Amino acid sequence: MRLLSAVTVSLASAALATTLTAGQTAPAPVQNIQMKAADGKVLGTASVTPTPKGVLIRATFEGVSAGPHGFHIHETGKCEPPEFTTAGGHFNPTKAAHGFLDPKGAHAGDMPNVFVAQGQKLEVEVLAPGVTLDSGATGLRDADGSSLVLHA
Question: Is the bond leading into 27 cis (omega within 30 degrees of zero)?
Fold first, then answer.
């Protein structure tokens, strides 16, 4: 499947913690992530915010083709156009199957497909359960980072 837009959503984990209460810290949200097409045109922005149950991903896109699109977290924080294949496969630290309807799925990078109406802006808000913004096994800020990808 051709990738429409991809962006690195995690970098080195230095200085990425926000104090919650005395002695407790949580990874800081990543905001104003530019989502770009293969030609470099900015199609929207995204933010990734930690929650007690996973990460909340909010994104807004304009100028995206009408119809259904896959929206996933990919395993590598390197997204180079035009094909964005450097983002690797879907983020899948538990080696689960792909898809919400698969009895052995869904893996951590699976998110619901999104649908864009003709000539409309797309706004997405989805929780990725079991995913964190730290550098652990389910963390998006591991050594090679992670990416958000909107499939064409």
Answer: no
What is the model's pTM?
Answer: 0.80
Tens digit of pLDDT for each residue in 1-34? Answer: 444 544 443 322 222 222 233 444 566 778 788 8
Cα(152)–Cα(148) distance, integer angstroms: 13
Class of residue 65 by CB neighbours under 10 A (exposed 0-12, middle 13-18, buried 19+): exposed
15 CB-near residues (< 8 Å, 6+ apart) = none
List, for residues 72-100, the tens digit of each pLDDT value: 999 988 888 888 888 899 999 988 888 88
**87 within 8 A of 10, measured Cβ to Cβ:** no
CA 53, 124, 30, 75 torsion: positive or negative? Answer: positive
Alpha helices in the chain (DSSP H): none
Contact yes or no for 59/124 (Cβ under 8 A): yes
